[in-house]
Amino acid sequence: MSVAFSPPFPNPGCMSTTGYPPVTEQLAEPETTREEGRRKMDWALQHMPILESLREDFLAEKPLEGERVAMAMHVEAKTANLVELLADGGAEVTLTGCNPLSTHDDVSAALDAHEKITSYAVRGVDDEEYYEAIEATIGHDPTITVDDGGDLVFAIHEDYPELIDTIVGGCEETTTGVHRLRSMAEDGALEYPVFAVNDTPMKRLFDNVHGTGESSLATIAMTTNLSFAGKDIVVAGFGYCGKGVAKKASGQNANVIVAEVDSRKALEAHMEGYDVMPMSEAAEVGDVFITTTGNRDVIVEEHFRKMQDGVLLANAGHFDVEIDLVALEELAADHYEARDGVEAYEMPDGRRLNVLAEGRLVNLAAPLALGHPVEVMDQSFGVQAACVRELAENGDGYEPGVHEVPDDLDREIAEIKLEAEGVEFDTLSAEQEEYLSSWQHGT
């Protein structure tokens, strides 16, 4: 079944991948660049004990032998270690970026040098090149997909439905992608099983909260050289990512304001001690605005008209649709690069509204961005690797649709991490397990 979808960029349709070059054929000095990427990967791997532990098993058991894994991810050092782990497990891997500004060319080149990996990811591609790279990745006839945002899965269903019969399943990394896939499944249009990696506790509680919170604020601070202390920080959305941003901003002595559309989340933010108000009111007082919703049109024209001179606008959700940049540009009398990674939009009355990283995912797309902390991504990518292994070994047991990550896989990754950290924890006795599983014990 072919399904229509709405990608973050205009989809140019099914394109031939003939002749589309991997990254090393597009770079001026691929060998030097490759060495720089390898150095980044080696540094990250020192702090990724989960992937190191899994690597031992993957090298010995080759659980992915014969599989062809296609990936659309943020191609940087931490992701690269996941990619190499899958190759070490026996898979042929092809990958491209899931955001035009989150690829590190040196890391992409280092991956492309691996005999079992082909990388088409290049930073700064335009809309057409972005989709050409996705098509080239799909052109290797994958049996498993690993996606961040859903574009790879949607492109397969739209342009390559003939591949679906040979794809055993996929994994989706992020909130936005899971939302899109669930909508697709509800419409009966998702034709192979996909694990919602984003929804598992090891992803939500650590990657979304600590990873997004720390990396977003660190990137904003490095990009602007400004402090958060004493400022009014408006966080749009109080899901796991929003909770992380709010918590970390509060820890840096900011006054946190939360804008929410869900009554229970708004109440939760209120009970956490944050100010809660509609965006229309927050727009008048905020100094820094950070969107974390995964939705579109979170900050729009009516809000721009109320904002103070010098505000910072950053997106920590996913696609560049949370801040209405079209409306902002139409309102502005002028816009210019105020600082590397900061575009100033000057209003007719002289107010300047500053957009970071072109409204894209700030912790990955800004010039100084490094993404989530290494230790956090070690956990998330450990879950990804375990899910790919599960698909290779037991994929036939899953029906088409979105699936929760099996709890034993999630706990496996937590236990590996605790062991690496030297942390011991209790276990239930047989009597305790029996008590919890029985309905016969009364008061």
UniProtKB/TrEMBL annotation:
NAD(+) binds at residues 174-176, 208, 237-244, 260, 295, 316-318, 363, 372. It holds the Pfam family AdoHcyase_NAD. Binds 1 NAD(+) per subunit. It is found in: Cytoplasm. Residues 1-37 are annotated as: Disordered. Substrate binds at D148, E173, K203, D207. Its cofactor is NAD(+). Its main location: cytoplasm. InterPro entries: Adenosylhomocyst_ase-like_sf, Adenosylhomocysteinase-like, Ado_hCys_hydrolase_NAD-bd, NAD(P)-bd_dom_sf, S-Ado-L-homoCys_hydrolase_CS. Residues 208-369 form the S-adenosyl-L-homocysteine hydrolase NAD binding domain. GO terms for cellular component: cytosol. Pathway: Amino-acid biosynthesis; L-homocysteine biosynthesis; L-homocysteine from S-adenosyl-L-homocysteine: step 1/1. It catalyses: S-adenosyl-L-homocysteine + H2O = L-homocysteine + adenosine. It comes from the Archaea. One of its GO terms (biological process) is S-adenosylmethionine cycle. GO terms for molecular function: adenosylhomocysteinase activity. Belongs to the adenosylhomocysteinase family. PANTHER family: ADENOSYLHOMOCYSTEINASE. May play a key role in the regulation of the intracellular concentration of adenosylhomocysteine. This is Adenosylhomocysteinase. It comes from Halalkaliarchaeum desulfuricum. The gene is ahcY2.
